[in-house]
């Protein structure tokens, strides 16, 4: 039997909340969520691998992708460009697999406009002071960039009500379980088995 089209999940949240950490954990587990690897013009951080964490690219190539409509969404964030290659997403959904995007809020709003059936999840830290501790503790950005990211974080948090779900990242394992539970619940909703059971009852 032909598989239904996969579901598209969008995970956003302020810089430093733990999106990457959660996605790393989920990618190591057996789930039906395929991770869409973004393109970015940002320089790789120590330990980041091209084609695993991001497709690192030059600005010219990124512009070309925009002009050729090869990005599902894109945004400029603190001086760098980030975008979702469209081909991987559509091919994977067409095969019947689910896709998860880990993107910031401007990009999520573009997806909401162009693909409203996507499921939007906003990841929240337990507090703003904990958010600061996490982004400072990561030690990957200088102070001015951290402050810039934290001021954008406040604006992003104000957009939380546009999302279908708000998930707290208090503990990594718990946040992963919540996201996986959302995926299961959304499949139950999409599959709506009432019709199948109605037919079974009528046949008895
Ligand atoms: N539940 C948690 N408890 C404590 N620390 C956490 C938790 N989740 C993530 N962290 C830590 O917070 C820091 C930021 O996490 P991470 O890089 O995953 O955030 P992010 O949301 O992907 O950030 P960005 O959007 O800037 O890429 C990391 O040092 C990570 O180890
Ligand atoms: N709109 C998009 N945002 C993206 C994409 N890939 C990642 N991101 C988000 O950018 C910020 C900064 O990321 P960082 O790796 O430099 O810390 C963060 O919120 C990411 O989620 C994308 O394809 N489109």
UniProtKB/TrEMBL annotation:
Keywords, in A-Z order: ATP-binding, Cytoplasm, Kinase, Nucleotide-binding, Transferase
> Domain Guanylate kinase-like, which positions?
6-184
Q: What does it catalyze? A: GMP + ATP = GDP + ADP
Extract one GO molecular function annotation from the record.
Answer: GMP kinase activity
State the compartments where it is located: Cytoplasm
Question: What's one GO-annotated cellular component?
Answer: cytosol
- Domain of life, per UniProt, equals Bacteria
Could you say which residues bind ATP here? Answer: 13-20
One Pfam family matching this protein: Guanylate_kin
Q: What class of enzyme is it?
A: transferase
Q: Which CDD domains match?
A: GMPK (cd00071)
EC identifiers of the protein: 2.7.4.8
Major subcellular site: cytoplasm
Instruction: Name the protein family.
Output: Belongs to the guanylate kinase family.
What is the protein's known function?
Essential for recycling GMP and indirectly, cGMP.
Q: What is this protein called?
A: Guanylate kinase
Annotated source species = Lottiidibacillus patelloidae
Highest classification ranks of the organism: Bacteria, Bacillati, Bacillota, Bacilli, Bacillales
- Gene name on record? gmk
